[in-house]
Amino acid sequence: MENVEGCYLLVGEDSWSKDKWIGQVKSSILNDPNDMMNYLEAKDKEVVVSNIIDFAETLPFFVDKKLIYLKDTGLFKPGKKEETEKFEAFIQKVPDYVVILIDEQEVDKRGKLYKTIKSKHHIKEFDYPGEDAVYKLLVEDCKAKGISIEQGTMRYFIRNMPENISYILTEWEKLLGYITGSQITKEDIDAVCVFSLEQRVFEMVKRIALHQGEIALGIYSRLIQSKESPIGILVLIARQYRMLMQVKYLAAQRKSPKEISSAVKIPFFAVQEMLNQAQGYSFKQLEAIVQECLQVDQDIKTGKMEASRRVEILIMHCLNT
Questions:
Q1: How far apart, in whole angstroms, are the C-alpha atoms of residue 117 and residue 3?
Q2: Contacts with 100 (C-beta within 8 Å, 6 or more apart), sequence order
Q3: What is the pTM of this model?
Q4: What domains are defined for the chain?
Q5: Is residue 1 predicted with pLDDT exceeding 80?
């Protein structure tokens, strides 16, 4: 465990990695996880700066450091000016024996508090570590549990999950509980795992590009049956076609797949798929589909047509493009 000191602002959407790191810090500082003498935890409305200062001003008891964990404080956005100013003044000179972890969902980087932490303390980002890191994590779990899975099957599982380790591990445990032997197959994954909406829409657009209408409409029908929002599906369809435009444009500029992946912020394997899809469209066709997505949104919001039916018509138009 790295040596921790001062104040840490924890940001990013990977809650699994964040919680793991917080647990490691807690174990490294406290002899007992229930040590109320040296550990203060406050969330949301429980965060009172005067209480934090009072706790920090007393020396640690039988350990070297005291630990303060704050979650969703509201101090990094408008609404708590007085409390924010008091806390910002306090962290200018945090006692050497105090470690503060601030776990925030929303942070205004323009604020003085954020800038003070950035200049005097630490900002630790927890983002999705990428496919290879998740692959390694799951392979190690397979070895520990005596489970076998082919590399391509494991990649198939990971690539159909959202970029959220907590979600992936939940689906992984469901999968392990489902299989009756020691081998995981693609059929097992399809039978028990809930793929991300983004991945299912990606697959649907892929089928549209291949003019596989029955499969594409089947995917859409299952999405509606599983109570997915037609508006949410529409947003992802529009995003997918905008990304196809970007990929096609960058490919025309002779950018490599690796460069396109970096520019568009999508995984390398997805770029390869999208390059193939984009070849089936002209720029004019892609622009027309994106424009129709905007029109569909307008039609739904003005009540011209029921949402699920209007998105279905969009899909059929895309198939005929």
A1: 18
A2: 6, 7, 8, 68, 70, 91, 94
A3: 0.69
A4: 6-125 (3.40.50.300), 131-192 (1.10.8.60), 197-319 (1.20.272.10)
A5: no
